[in-house]
Write a structure and sequence with these properties.
The structure is a single chain. By secondary structure, the chain is of the alpha/beta class. The chain has one domain (3-244): TIM Barrel (Alpha-Beta Barrel). Helices cover 44% and strands 20% of the residues. The protein has eleven helices and nine strands. Helix 9 links the parallel strand 8 (192-196) and strand 9. The protein is globular, with a radius of gyration of 18 Å. The N and C termini lie far apart (37 Å).
């Protein structure tokens, strides 16, 4: 069964974006995004089984302490596994996050400088909790890392004990040819794959679900969910608007 993981982006301790609700509900959803506890409470009520959090500030500013405070607060207040995509600091920082309740860390890039640290984390916390980010371009190669082939990178992930990757296509699109390519990657390198975005309607979601045992076992969604691309979400938004009225 394919796992659908909602994604939120944290900036300065609050969530970036907003759910597209019924007319007159903008302020309600804006308030949710300003209070991550309320937003995640709604996601749990809508049966979310896990949560992907992107720590924007760790990649774009010098201080992401407000984000980390909010993220750890979420992990301590909800029985929902959180996978965190944050800029790698060092092994001790990662251990603090994992020991404080974060279920899974996404390593943005495996490189010579952090190779031993990441290997030690995998040994201590298991490959299900330490996973790797791969952003691909239109030719199925690592985006903005032209000096390094994808096969070489995946072999390096294998060498340290990695068993799961998160794939994001730069254009956030996904079709049958890319699906077949990712299936072959999963088989060739013995990796589980989470797809970031790329699914924008129920038909694509059903296709992925039917093939969930062939390597891609989860899909991470942000804008797709916030724009209510699936029929059940229309029902939720209508119900929420009636409660407000």
């Amino acid at each position: 069964m394919l796992l659908v993981i909602p994604a939120i982006e944290m900036r300065n301790g609050t969530c970036f974006g907003c759910i597209e609700g019924e007319e007159g509900t903008f302020d309600y959803y804006q308030e949710l995004f300003e209070n991550p506890l309320l937003l995640v409470k709604l996601m749990r009520e809508e049966n979310s089984k896990a949560l992907h959090v992107y720590d924007y500030d760790s990649f774009h500013t010098l201080d992401s302490s407000a984000n980390l405070k909010s993220i750890l607060n979420l992990s301590q207040n909800f029985d929902i596994p959180i996978q965190l995509h944050s800029n790698f600091v060092d092994a001790n920082h990662c251990r603090m996050l994992l020991d404080s309740g974060i279920y899974r860390l996404i390593i943005n890039e495996l490189k010579d400088e952090n190779l031993l640290s990441v290997k030690s984390l995998l040994k201590s916390y298991s490959p299900s909790r330490i996973v790797f980010w791969c952003e691909l371009d239109n030719s199925n190669e690592l985006d903005e890392k032209g000096e390094r082939a994808l096969d070489e990178y995946l072999r390096q992930i294998q060498s340290v004990g990695g068993r799961r990757i998160v794939i994001k296509y730069f254009d956030r699109l996904f079709d049958i040819s890319r699906f077949e390519f990712l299936k072959s990657l999963s088989q060739d390198f013995n990796l589980k794959i989470s797809l970031f975005e790329g699914v924008y309607d129920a038909e694509n979601l059903i296709m992925l679900n039917n093939e969930a045992l062939k390597g891609i076992d989860s899909v991470i969604m942000s804008e797709t969910l916030f724009r209510n691309c699936f029929p059940c979400q229309k029902i939720w938004r209508l119900a929420e608007s009636k409660l407000m009225n």
